[in-house]
Every structure is written in structure tokens, then in C-alpha cells.
Amino acid sequence: MIVRYIAYRLGLMVISIFIISIVVFFLVRLKGDPVDVMAPPYFSEEQRDELRRAWGFDKPLLVQYRIFLSKAITGDFGLSIAYKTDAMRLVLERLGWTYLLTLAATIIAVAIALPLGILSALKRGSFFDLSVTLTVTIGMAMPSFWLAIVFIIIFSANLKWLPAFGALEPKSIILPSLVLGLGMAANLSRIVRSSTLEVLRQQYVVTARAKGLPERIVIWRHVLSNSLIPVITALGLQIGWLLGGAVIVEQVFAWPGLGRLMVDAVTLHRDVTVVQAGLLWFALSFLLINLIVDVLYLFLDPRIKVTA
Amino acid sequence: MSQTLFKSSKHALAKSSLVERRRRWVGMRRLLRSLRASPVGICGSLIVAGVLLVALLGPWLTPHDPTTANFRAREQPPAGLEGGSWEYPLGTDQLGRDILSRIIVGTRVSVVIGIASVLISSVLGVMIGLLAGFLGGWIDLGLMRIVDATLAIPYIVLVVAVSGVVGPGLLTLIFILALINWQAYSRVVRSEVLSVRERDYVTAAYAIGQKKLPIMLRHILPNVTASIIVLAALQVALTILAESSLSFLGLGVQPPTITWGLIAADGRELVGSAWWIATMPGIAITLTVLGITFLGDWLRDYLDPQLQP
Known about the structure:
The complex is a heterodimer of chains A (308) and B (309).
Chain A: H1 2-27, H2 34-38, H3 45-55, H4 61-73, H5 87-122, H6 127-141, H7 144-158, H8 174-200, H9 203-210, H10 215-253, H11 258-269, H12 272-300
Chain B: H1 2-36, H2 39-61, H3 99-135, H4 137-151, H5 155-166, H6 170-179, H7 183-196, H8 200-207, H9 212-249, H10 260-266, H11 275-303
Helix pairs in contact in B: 2-3, 2-11, 3-4, 3-6, 3-7, 3-9, 5-6, 7-9, 8-9, 9-10, 9-11, 10-11
């Protein structure tokens, strides 16, 4: 059953990736002639023609897409225009840094959001609950680049505790992952709170209390084990948000991840092959994480029936 | 005969418009009463009204010219700090330009981009969601697969890629933010349509022989507007955040135009000496987004009392 479900989900994923490949393919052609995007402004007409022939832009669109797709499947997106190396390899080199940052941020977010969300649900309406809700709302309204700058001002420029740029020492990950993690914690704690409140209303919690079970056991055994299940799904979706947020945070902290590579590719070099490969990897990461989360969900919640 | 019929129907029309106006007035009073009872709603609408006013009157409110450099007043800290003065309440940047004036002028750009792109994306998203939910079948399946697939690319990543390829600019930015943001509406509208579609009044409309399009517009659309309005309010906030981040990265609005993100980018290299340049616009962004969020939260409670968390 589970094998069939995974096969079904993988099938959906293939369709998604196919659609994304069309998006990625047309991205370079949004302005009509892709040479406009790739060629530096000083190129002569002959050089532009040469570029056009070399990349096959003179062929019909469908043929171009077929060539693009058959190469992309093997991981071949062409050479990076700026670095003169394989675009895919460049992306893969940077991917690990982004994953590392995302993982650290997720750990921070979970460590903050779980206790905050659960406590504010248990003490609903209290001063604690209100202040958590207010803090979370303010946290979600802050742009992440701004929070990053504020942290740099406090912890690097003034206190000189932590490095503000690069990834030269293990300490470097603290600030960027904190900025990303706090943003995610704000989102996540809201979800934890509402899901805990939902469970507290359930009949089995009332029954457990009516049986005279100590409150501690009711909370740990009956409430938490159930309220955390939907949180896992939310976590999967949040990681997509995190990957996006990483683009901005990596740029501010000069973290050598995929996001920084892509922003540089776009702003400095118009390196379209890197952008294409990067986009695909972002999407692939998101889809894979959510597939894993959903399969995990099946094991955690026996009530869920596979509907494939 | 036909003359009298025409007259009476005209009379009925006038009367119905009177009833309509009366009903609207009652609705207004109910709205204001609900607003008065909600501190979050008051807070949000005050902030939003303030931001809109500043956006509207921008150039007439600035204490200094936002573009004139004043080299004798470079990097002055905000009022109240050592070396600061009330002449420049939020300090000056590296060229001696007044930061408060720059933030005031930047408000308009952020507000216009936020509202315009949300208008475009909500119309687009609602249409696609209505079609998918109402027509069902292959169209629904195809459209929802496209929604799912495009949602797999993180929003900001796609914005960065598209604006990098198309090139920066105010109008392109509005369209990019809109084109990447319609999926949220489609999803909400579609799921609402799926539940509304089965209601008795829609079946009744079918039974008296109405066509699909009028049913969609007259019976289904009004029932999903509440969710759309709430979603749109929150999307304006998200769009303003995205625009400022993009401008900060240098991929959004371009320099002679002043926006909050660009002011922050100006101060990015100076966080050690003149921290106020980069931080002050962030406070404006946070406050604006907070106001819109508050207003949206109250609107949700007001429009759909069942939806309370």
C-alpha cells in the first residue's frame, strides 16, 4: 500500500518537474530573444549571431525545448557563462551550504516554536499567550534582510561576538541560521498553537481528564502526541519558505549557498544556465522534502488512509 | 398598457435602490461598531490610514528635499542621540540626505506596487480558481497541477530569477509580483467553489435553466468574496515585504526612485558607523506590514465569524 502511494506521489512529482522545466525553459525567452539576456551590451551583430547559433536559438521552439529537456534530464544545463564550468556542478557545490543553513534554521525554529506554541495554547488567553501572539505577529512583519542587518549591528559591529560575513569558521553559521530560524519560528509557533488548541477540544482529552488522569499525563500522552502530527506537514511546507528566505539571508551574510550563487548569477553576470539549474534544484528540494514528510506522516498517524 | 408597465417597473427600481442604500447604511454602521469593539482592528486601520495618507501626500509632507545632498550634515544620527538634532529626526545618510523625508517619499512606491500587483494577481487567481472549481474534470486537474508545480519554486527565488532576466523596472516589478502570486487565490477560490457548488441555491439556479457563466458570477463569486478580501489584504503585506527585499537586493526598483528597500541597501555597508540608515526604513516596513496584518485579521473575524481560530 505504502509502496503504491510513494509510486503515485513520485508520478505527481514527475508531472510537476515537467511543468517546472517548461517554466525554466521559457524563463530565458521571456523577453523574446534569449540573446538579449545573455549577450553583453558591447557584442556586435556577428557575435550575437554566433551566440544564437551556438545555443541553437535559431531552431524552432519545440526543437529547442526537446534539446533542452533531453540534456537537462542528464543534468547538463550547459556551461556557466561567468565561471566557464559546468553549471550543474557549480550548483551542486553550493547546494550543500544552503542545506546546512536550512537545517540549522529548522532546528532553531523547532526548538523555539514547539515550547512557545504549546505553552500559549495551554494558557490560552493569558498574558503569556497574548505576548507570544504579539511577538509572533511582529516577527512575521519584519523583513528578513532587516532582521539580518539589526543582528549584524548588534552582534558583530558592536559586541564583536560573531562574524558577519562568509563561512570561514563554524561560528559563522550562527547569525544567518538565527535570522532564518526566527522567521520560521514565528510561523511555526502559530501552527503549533492552533493545532494544540484543536486537540484540547477533542473528546478523548475530555475522557482522559474525566478518568482522573493526572494533567501531566493528559498533556504529554494525549494532547502532544496528537497535536504535533499536523505540525510535521506544516514543517514541510515551511521549508519551502525557508529555501526562499535563504536567498536573501545568504546575500546579506555572504553565505556561499545556492541563493547567493543565483542572485550573483542574475545581477552580476546574467548567467542564465546557472539560474536554470538553480531554479530546478530549489524546486526539486522542495518536492522531495514534502514527499518525505508526507510518507513520514503515514507512519505517524495510523488513522490516515492512503487514497491513491 | 406597456407605458404603465414601464412606469411601474421604473418606480420599483427607484424604490429598490432606496432599500439598497438603506441596507448599505445599516451595513456601514455594523462595520463601524465591530471596528470599535476590536483594538486590533482600530490599531490596524489607524496604521493603514496613516500609511495611505503619507503615500498620497508624500512630497508635501517632507521636512527636507529627499534628493538634495548636504555634505555638512553627513551621517548625522537620529534626534536624541549624541550629535543628532531635531532638524533631521531620523538622521541623515552618507550624502547628508534626510532619512525621514526619504522614507516618506518611498511610501508611495511600496503602496502602489503592493496594491497594483495584488489587484492583478487576485483577478487572475480568482478567474483561474473559479474555472477550475466550477468546470472540474480535466481543466481542474490541469490547472491545479500547474498551481502545485509553480508553488514548488520558492516565491522569492522565482521573483529573483524572473526580474533578473526581464530586467528591473517599476512596471515589470508589479507584473512579476502579480504573475507569481495568483496561485494562493486560485487554491482558496477553488476549494470554496467546490463546497458552494453543491448548495441548494446553485442547484436551483441550474434547475430554472441558468447558464454556467451567470451562475458562476451571480451565485458563486459573491460567496467567495469574503475569503478573497481577507487573502488580498494579507497578500498586500507580503507583496510589500517582497518588493522591499527585492529592491534591497538590487533587483527591484532602481536608484533614482526612492523605496524603503533601496534606502536600507544604501546603508548596508555602513552598519558599523551609521546604523540608522539601514534600520530606519525597516521600521517603516514592519509597521506597515503589521498594520495591514491587523486590519486583515479583524476583517477575517468580521466577514466570517465562523472562521475564528
